[in-house]
Design goal:
Length: about 170
């Protein structure tokens, strides 16, 4: 994970901590003013980023879409030119953890992944825990993902149930 992406997440956590401290202090007006300030700054920087994207043109963004910080800012401000499925694939491609896509529910934001059989370093597994690298990459590239469910590698795939057609009664000749 790049330092810039980590720094951006740390900055977001610090903003949340400051807002939480203000809320815990009991001064509702100060808390509301701080939250409004964060919203105004987000709108301001989002408008600037939108203008940059507009002037550059989507086709010239190219390699910037691989950058975790740029991708997360574009997604945060709904400016990312790639759809969510492409960004999920980009996130999964960027990590070393052996997982594959099992499905994504756009309504709930739940992403289902399948762990690769015999993957990893051979040093044991955290069971059904989603690797931190996968969660970090998804947070950068596809913030629409609200939860990740990991299916074990040996999980049976749903089978397509095929039945026989009912036989028509024999016709008398």
């Amino acid at each position: 994970m790049s330092g810039a992406a980590t720094d951006a997440r740390d900055a977001g956590r610090r903003v949340d901590e400051v807002l939480d401290r203000l809320a815990a202090g009991g001064d509702r007006e100060a808390c509301a003013a701080a939250e409004e300030l964060v919203r105004v700054l987000m709108d301001f920087y989002g408008a600037g980023l939108a203008r940059i994207v507009e002037r550059l043109g989507v086709e010239r963004l190219g390699g910037l879409l691989d950058d975790e910080l740029v991708a997360s800012l574009l997604a945060l401000h709904d400016l990312h030119p790639e759809d969510v499925h492409t960004r999920i694939a980009r996130a999964l491609d960027s990590v070393r953890d052996p997982v594959s896509l099992a499905g994504f529910d756009e309504v709930t934001g739940v992403l289902r992944l399948r762990s690769a059989p015999g993957g990893g370093c051979g040093c044991g597994s955290a069971g059904d825990a989603v690797p931190q690298g996968v969660e970090d990459a998804l947070a950068c590239f596809a913030p629409e993902v609200t939860a990740v469910e990991l299916e074990p590698a040996g999980a049976p795939l749903p089978l397509l149930q095929i039945g026989t057609r009912p036989q028509a009664p024999a016709r008398a000749r």
